[in-house]
Amino acid sequence: MSFYQDYLTYKDIDIENFIANVNGDQVQRIIQKPVLNKSDFLFLLSPAAEPFIEEMAQRAHKISVHQFGRTIVLYTPMYLSNYCTNQCVYCGFNAKNKIERKQLTLEEVELEARAVSGTGLKHILILTGDAKNIASIDYLKDCLKILEKYFTSISIEIYALETTEYAELTSAGVDSLTIYQETYNETLYDEVHLKGPKKDYRFRMDAPERACEAHIRSVNIGALLGLYDWRYEAFITGLHAEYLQNKYPDVEFSISLPRMRPHAGGFQPEVITSDKNLVQIMTAMRIFLPRVGITISTRESAAFRDNIIRLGVTKMSAGSTTVVGGRTQDAGNTGQFDISDHRSVDEMMLSIRELGYQPVFKDWQPV
Amino acid sequence: MDAAEDYLEIGGRKLKSRLFTGTGKYSSDALIPEIIKKSGSEVITVALRRVDFHSHVDNVMNHIPKDIQLMPNTSGARNAQEAVRIARLSRKTGCGDWIKIEVISDNKYLLPDGYETIEATKVLAGEGFVVLPYVSPDLMVARKLVEAGAAAIMPLGSPIGSNRGLKTKELVRILIDEIPLPIIVDAGIGRPSEACEAMEMGADACLVNTAIASAGDPVKMAEAFGKAVSAGRQAYLAGPGTTSEYASASSPLTGFLNE
Fold first, then answer.
1. Catalytic member of B16, B25, B38, B100
2. Annotated catalytic, B37?
3. Is the model's pLDDT at B74 over the cut of 60?
4. CA A85, CA A90: separation in Å to the nearest integer?
């Protein structure tokens, strides 16, 4: 069994029809319910819930303070390699894109690690493209030996692995996995992933479960907002997170809400997810899944990120770059996408404090 | 007993305050000294996963007054082995010999794993730690923890962080009656009145974190909890009067027989 079986039940759901008759009274009752079911969640994503976005935000804020306190865990991404064999139409690393390809040497990893560590961060997210022969498991394990000297929590955002490979990496010090389904619409998934190993929808969907079987500590999932109807993507993302929480009670789950950003290749989003839409997704998610973490990256602007901190965000990146070696080398044009919030870790820390929240640099200790 | 001579003794340390506090969920660790001062708390728990001695940014440890008893906890441990490793790391990094064992492998209810907790307690008590295990209020588990060398038992009032109050009251009462170690109600207490109730019943102390940290004014709430715990203790020492289904006249009816 995997989430795919549940997905088959919902994949063809006619959302528009399902939420056509929901009214404001229903929405208001749902906002105050102690436990929500799947339909409640979908109703909170409906147009009928839009006028009640302030009520949703108030409830989401209360739940978040109770569940997580007034704290935001900080992390930063470190791109190790941008070699890629996939052709994903929305991604700057697309194998067809003529960008400078690069993979950090171990010496360069050490330099980058030192530079990041100098900002005080203890949580790092390492990323690669999908080129298993270049950014191999062995290469990653060598990098981990260096990174564990500087960081207490190491997450990976790389190509989907087999269970035994996840186990190799968790034994080597990885505690968290980030993997996005990009779009839960299986037909569209096939259309936007033109070539490469990532074309296998099911293998990617099952990746979080394989990592859990390999005793990973936490898993972060999400859909890339901009490819398809945001209501559908948010709904299935929520169901996926709920399924994982129930199946693996010893693993912590979080979701990301990445909105598409400008990137090499220039593919334009098919669907615009407005700030208001994003707030609706985030607050609905928080009310539906009180203990799921919510991660917001520097894809979002500084002003918007500051505004949504109180609505349920638990983790934020800071001092980010999507360029391989972006902290210690000439930037070049190797980035995956353009970031929007360019604040340094220090600036981010001050902003969070000004909002009455505590920036948390360390929330994990390898044992 | 005179309240002035009333101490709770754990691991050789005499504690005047019976309110234990925590360090999680605050908007700023800088609140901690004020929380401690206003509540009178002398014991504070801190998750070792959050402690960073090498941090040049800030460190929760910088905000904990030196005369306060530190009770590091094993938050994040999913089995006995991990709890033991965290405890050893805690001692090695200078956090002392006290260790609150938390072994949790269910993130939904955050209910502790009694079996793994007993295993960890055996090992750590053998290594000279002052072991304070966080458990469900189960008499058999508590008895095994006594045998394993625990310094106190910390049963939950309701699921951790839930603020739902003393839902396990009858089971905690059994531990108070049967277990020859201090019983510290840990987790679930949402209001000062509930902490007071636990103390009136004979609990030896209460640990409160979320209810203070998530309050509108955490410092004021910490003070309220300090007073409630102390009032409950005093009531317990005073020995509450019996209860009755009906009203009873406060002037005896048969006083004339003694005239």
1. B100
2. no
3. yes
4. 14
Q: Is A98 near chain B, with CB under 8 Å?
A: no
In tens, the pLDDT along B154-212 reads 999 888 777 788 989 999 999 999 999 999 999 889 999 999 999 999 999 999 999 99
Element containing residue B119 per DSSP (H, E)? helix B114-126
Residues A296 and A305: beta-carbon distance below 8 Å: yes
Q: Do residues B9 and B15 make contact, with C-beta atoms less than 8 angstroms apart?
A: yes
Tell me whether 0.85 is exceeded by the ipTM: no
Instruction: Using DSSP bridges, classify how beta strands A358-360 and A71-79 pair: parallel, antiparallel or unpaired.
Output: parallel
Separation between Cα atoms, residue B215 and residue B202, nearest integer Å: 26
Of A32-36, A89-93, A215-219, which range is least confident? A89-93
Q: Which residues pair with A359 in a beta bridge?
A: A72
- Please say whether the beta carbons of B189 and B195 come within 8 A: yes
d(CA B19, CA B204): 9
* CA–CA dist A57, A86 (Å, integer): 39
Q: At what angle do helices B80-92 and B114-126 cross, to 10 degrees?
A: 40
Overall pTM > 0.95: no
Cβ distance of B105 and A251 shorter than 8 Å: no
Whether residue A291 lies within 8 A of chain B, CB to CB, comes out as yes
